[in-house]
Amino acid sequence: MRSIARADRPAADRWLARGLALLVALAVCAPLLGRGYTLAYDMVFVPDPAFTAHAWGGDGMVPRAVPADAILAVVGWLLPMSLVQQLLLLAATGLGVLGAWRVAPARTLLGAAATALAFGWGAYQAERLAMGQWSLLLGVALLPWVLRAGLGAADTGRAWQLALLVAAGAVAAPTAGVLTAGLALALVAALPLSGRHRALVVATAGVANATWAVPGALAGARLGRDDLGVAAFATAADTPAGVVVSALTGGGVWNRLVHLDSRASAVSAGLGLVVLAVAALGVRALVTRPATATRASDPVGPAPAPASARAGRAVLALGIIGLLLALVTTTGPGAHAVTWLTGHVPGAGLLRDAQKWLGWWLLPVALAFGVGLERVAAWFPPGSAVLVLASGALVPLVATPDYAWGVGGRLEAHPWPAAYSEAARALDEAPRPGAVVVLPWHAFRAWDWNGDRAVLDPWQRWLDRPVVVRDDLELVHRTVPGEDPVAAAVGEVLGRGGPVDTEALRALGVRYVLEDLTTAGREGPEPAGSVLVDNDRVRVVDLGPVEADPARDAHPVRVAGADLVALVWVLGLVIGGAVSRWRNGRSRVLLSR
Amino acid sequence: MPLTPWLMALIAFVIGIVLAILAIFMATAVLTPAAKQSDSPLIVYGNDG
């Protein structure tokens, strides 16, 4: 019988990891790889995204996808956006699997596969992907790579890879930035690194996350106590076993509309608890150095280089913090505390959607699961042990089968109808200044050509001019107020009833009204003005010239300064890393002579 | 202990069942129409319980 020890079969260890990552990415993303764009909830990709102040955070609004939108706009000059989206989705679903395998402390190929699947396949990924939060998933997928780079830094004394990964997380999304930076900081605190390298990682975390934190803090003056948001976005039970088990097993996103059918059965929660129980058996190995001496005849084989116990403890501690953060707003005092923070600390709004922090929890569970499974397998004779390992590795798949195929058919690619591009072109060429207000006065759309899925309004990303969209989040049971004062003023004008007061809109800097004709929620009379575009899906009305674009309390110079510093810093890291790599390679060549 | 033929058959059987469940699920997902939000006139961001 061939050994299944990773140390005995390094080539298999590399290629099986890549193969499994590709298989998982394709199993999830297959329906998203067709012609067009996958649009759902927060995931809005458009064919020709505009590089606007909104995209890089210079318009004074609370940043949501900053600076990712700006980077995507630049990438869109070089590559088709549909291809960019597909590559990002494949990365968000596959990178975590590959990274978890690489960093798994398991000694066998099947143990590493168990870690990879426990980390990369579960309710967390499925529910967040169904909500279109690809950038969060990209950040979570980077976590095992951050751990790997941290261990590498402790080994080689070079920390630029770790710093670059922190920067990558920061530009993906604010929460992704905090997740990756949090793990990196925990690792540099725990691992024996030089002061210089610690400073490099800490400084990168600050500089890279400033790209969204600076515009966020500058917009912070308008933030108030958000008790509605804290209550609405608290972790929710998606299994019959309650909210604690739901969170422990990686699920429990607040939005019940994306809860998985499989999670409604006790089987899924039960299998999730089996994963946790097995992981509990592996925790000791995670936080202490695993034994390296094993019998040569043992099919499990000798251990590969053990993961540092210090890193293991840091990962476990951060995982427990993530779990507690996910559960804190489900308790009365916890919800009060977070509500207070949202009113007094800029950026505390990140704590509202609490279940996101489970990203930290997934990593120690997955790492310990692979090792724990090997302990369980060791109770059996070698032949049966392989069966136990193989079956155990597949438990995450069986527990959440509906992550496959675009989260059980919830996601699918569709091309944008040409009518939208026609309206975008006309508005980009239309006289300036003047903002565009998008009607119906709601934040989300649902189109028949996209399977009637709820999608965030796309026009702020598409148009190369200011766009005002309602930013209140309308939920089934409550509406969480938005933070844009211009949108609030426009909403007040539109809510007066009777004919649309075009003079009042123009006084606010609004020149154009774009009506989305095929989504639900249309109401009220047509605004008066000259028609610029009128096709089967979009009508654009020109209300007449305005003196200036809508005025917001924007600080473009300060935000651009923070962006410039971050850009130069990251370029420095890339160049420094490349030079370090080249020198390393050269010294190896010289030594071998 | 070497893998006996019956043990290999058992491994193949268990893994086969798991893969079959996944295959059936995926085929069902492909053949059924995509999940839709409610027919209500308001498109909501989510159900907050």
Helix content estimate of chain B? 55-70%
| Rg value of chain B | 21 Å
What is the general shape of chain A? Answer: globular
Query: What is the multimeric organization of the chains shown?
Result: heterodimer
Contiguous helical run count of chain A: 24
Kindly estimate the percentage of residues of chain B that lie in beta strands according to DSSP. Answer: under 5%
Helical/strand content category of chain A: alpha+beta
- Helices and strands of chain B, in N-to-C order? H
- Describe the main β-sheet of chain B briefly: none
Distance between the termini of chain A: 40 Å
Q: Average pLDDT across residues of chain B?
A: 72
Cα radius of gyration of chain A in angstroms: 25 Å
What ranges of chain B have pLDDT less than 50 throughout 5 or more consecutive residues?
none
Question: Whole-Å distance between the termini of chain B?
Answer: 54 Å
Secondary structure tally, helices of chain B = 1
The count of DSSP E runs of length 2 or more, i.e. the number of strands of chain A, is 11
Number of strand elements of chain B = 0
